[in-house]
């Protein structure tokens, strides 16, 4: 499959990196915090605390009008932010934007792989969905040489066996079969890489060892090759594993593997599971259903706590929502950030 990216400027401050592909378009419960004011008074984040990390904020739905609010929330802690979506935002903006074909979010992980490929200078790459609220003070002290992933890892399927999980995505064209096809491609690539090394008498060099990825998957599966599923709206890839993630993403994107299968499976191919940092959070949509989660703003304040790293979905703006409510929400959160100490002391 032919793939590539095209970088150009739409306006003086708006860089677009557009991804091309031959893809075919197809159509629990945590402790409740009753007082949403919380106790943040004992916790002031250091200036520039995340200056070595590229924050990639991904829009599956095209609600780019929330970008100014996201800027207000995160820019003072993340100097380097790039946005990613399926289309160019209208008008002139002053934000970096990556445009990729993501099949209505199925392959949204291509946003991170494009960011890695086009901006390789960072210590790590943090992926979050635009409808996710990131409590950045809770991740300040995580090891930036390790992978960060959600603690919500929901299951797995042994490859080339009948699925036993009732989760509907396993049975779709973007599910288990697609994951198995990606694995077959990796076996082929590994054989080709070995032949190239033999033919070059050991002189052939590669930035990615496919065999290491396959061995990690087998080791993490305790001797079984498996596809995994889990919460994938927030994860972090350190620079040490960035090239491998980018190469793996190309294979999984080629077969259009669904994000909540592709990301956990790729992470299992990067390092041993026990080495990754686990991030806890609340998926309100999982608990109450997406419709209520997007329309009942009280649920956000019900669950927010300094002990969790994310909450989703958070509706900052919609055409039918009152803008002043979103702005007020951001200001309340910023007030807390300004009185937050990220250190453990």
Describe the model.
This protein has a domain at 53-154 and 230-339: Spore Coat Polysaccharide Biosynthesis Protein SpsA, Chain A. The chain is built from ten helices and 14 strands. The protein has helices spanning 67-74, 110-118, 176-199, 210-220, 239-254, 259-268, 284-288, 290-295, 298-303, 323-337; strands at 4-11, 14-20, 53-58, 81-85, 97-99, 124-129, 133-134, 148-150, 153-158, 226-230, 234-238, 277-279, 281-283, 310-312. The strands form three sheets. The chain has a nine-stranded mixed beta sheet with strand order 1-2-5-4-3-6-11-8-12. The protein has a three-stranded mixed beta sheet with strand order 7-14-13. A two-stranded antiparallel sheet has the order 9-10. The protein is globular. Mean pLDDT is 81; it is low at 1-16, 18-48 and 318-324.
